[in-house]
Amino acid sequence: MKALNKKIFVLSVLACFLLSACEDDLNVEPNTAQTEFDFLNDPNNAVKLVNGVYNKLLDYNMYSFSWIGIASITSDDADKGSSLSDTGTDKHKMDNLTFDPTDISFSDVYRGRYEGIYRANNALFYLEQLAIDENLKSRFIGEVKFLRALFYFDLVRCFGGVPLVTGKIDINDDETINEVVFVRKSKEEVYAQIEADLIDAATRLPLKSAYSSADLGRATKGAAQALLAKAYLYQQKWQQSYDMAGEVISSGQYGLLTNYADVWREVGENKAESIFEVQATLTNGLRDYTNVQGPRGTPDLGWGFNAPSANLANSFESGDVRRSASILFVPSVLWDNFVAPATWANPRYNYKAYQSQIAEPWNGDKGNTAKNHRILKYSDLLLIRAEAALNLGNSSEALSIVNTLRFRAGLGDRTSITYDQLLDERRWEMAMEYDRWFDLVRTGRAQQKMAADGKTFIPGKHEVFPIPNDQIIQSGQRLIQNPNY
Question: Any bridge partners for residue 348, and if so which?
Fold first, then answer.
């Protein structure tokens, strides 16, 4: 690959940082670019550095259409939805597990995370040079390291081992670009970096209750520990996962909301069950997240993709309130008294992505939703603790946690618990929350469950998604494709 092309590639990633510094609020529009000299001589820019990293979470290539496609439509929880003729470019291929390295969804997800990582690396580089209060600086570093770990967690779950870029990149340094930006590390090395960032972040970040209302939604000690517990779980580091989840539980900062359905509504935003969520406003919302999944037809509330499957709908036990809170059935009367008419194209939609135009803030812009996106919640953390406990031989604690969640769901207690039953409980508790595919893969149940849903999961291939072909080309073939793609 020619040096000029390399520099163009890296510049396209670098530009997102310099053009996306935010105002003091967590959710403002990008500010104009500043020279490096001006930036370093203005201590007020510390918060802009950090907010620029948070702001990346709202972009279309983060948690919108492409992420929804590869994290949910692939699974047995969801079908493509929408209309038969509207493929969503490649979402029909996600649904049928016939995807390939040229599909745009993989390129979006890959590029979006590395744009976030680049912002994070630049923020960390410049924070060290700014003359601000050392305690505040340490907290900001913790927030950025949490976000960088989150970006890498998404990448390693999707693609396995990926390039580890943890420092500011000089676009004229061809050697570093070739040996760092375009060279994949092992999955174990990526997880080691995630762990290191989160362990350090947890020592720097305050508890959730220590933040003022103006800073609500920033990364906390509990968020770093919860994500670390989840990263340990994915590696089957049962004891570490169990212990770290216990740290969050014993902090007293979190709890279950009484009404399960409230967790994903405006009334549940940043409440006791929230550990970390993407903050969205009417003026700077999460790009097309709700629009992608909103009901399609008359009246038209969205594109209609990511429809809950009959497989998911039929899997719930009778009386489980999580079913009606997760799946918007057509026709029906919704929680805000809006009538879901039979004129909508699909029989089911993702209720957790529904934003009320009647009972919640609404500015008429379906593509710029003010609905926060939940990344980590307390019930997820409880299930992490339960799964780790069960794998450590502590079935009584696992059973107790499951029964706590079943009580809220309106179900009776189980008298015993198996691993398969625990994973079923996780499916129902986390329905349509973009974890199902990864849960099936990491627990070795993907081939069996996909077959039951009429899909063919190929062992040795589908455990990871393909490295985007455009990235391999840009790297001059230095990036190595995943097996069998």
Answer: 329
Looking at residue 33, its pLDDT comes to 59
The pLDDT averaged over each successive group of 10 residues in the chain (485 residues) is 33 37 39 63 84 97 98 98 97 98 98 98 94 93 98 98 94 87 97 98 98 96 99 98 98 98 97 97 93 95 97 98 98 97 96 95 88 97 98 98 98 98 98 98 98 97 98 96 98
Q: What is the pTM of this model?
A: 0.93
DSSP for 231-290?
HHHHTT-HHHHHHHHHHHHHTT-----SSGGGGGSGGGTTSTTEEEEE---SSS-EETHH
Pick from 384, 373, 423: which is nearest to 230 by CA? 384
Distance of CA 40 to the CA centre of its chain: 32
Q: Is the distance from CB of 50 to CB of 21 less than 8 angstroms?
A: no
Query: Contacts for 310-319 with beta carbons within 8 Å, 24 or more apart?
Result: 310/348, 311/76, 311/77, 311/452, 311/453, 312/76, 312/77, 312/78, 312/427, 312/431, 312/432, 313/348, 315/424, 315/427, 315/428, 316/428, 317/411, 319/410, 319/411
Residue 171: what pLDDT? 79
- Are 305 and 82 in contact by the 8 Å Cβ rule? The answer is yes
3-state secondary structure 58-100: CCHHHHCHHHHHHHHHCCCCEEEECCCCCCCCCHHHHHHCCCC
In the three-class reduction of DSSP (H, G, I as helix; E, B as strand; rest coil), residue 337 is classed as: coil
The per-type count for the chain, helices as H runs and strands as E runs, is 21, 10
Q: How far is CA 251 from CA 209, 232, 308, 378, in A?
A: 10, 19, 35, 12
Q: How many angstroms separate the CA atoms of 362 and 76, rounded? A: 32
CB atoms within 10 A of CB 1: 16
Amino acid at residue number 417: I
Q: Judge whether 395 and 416 are in contact, CB under 8 Å.
A: yes
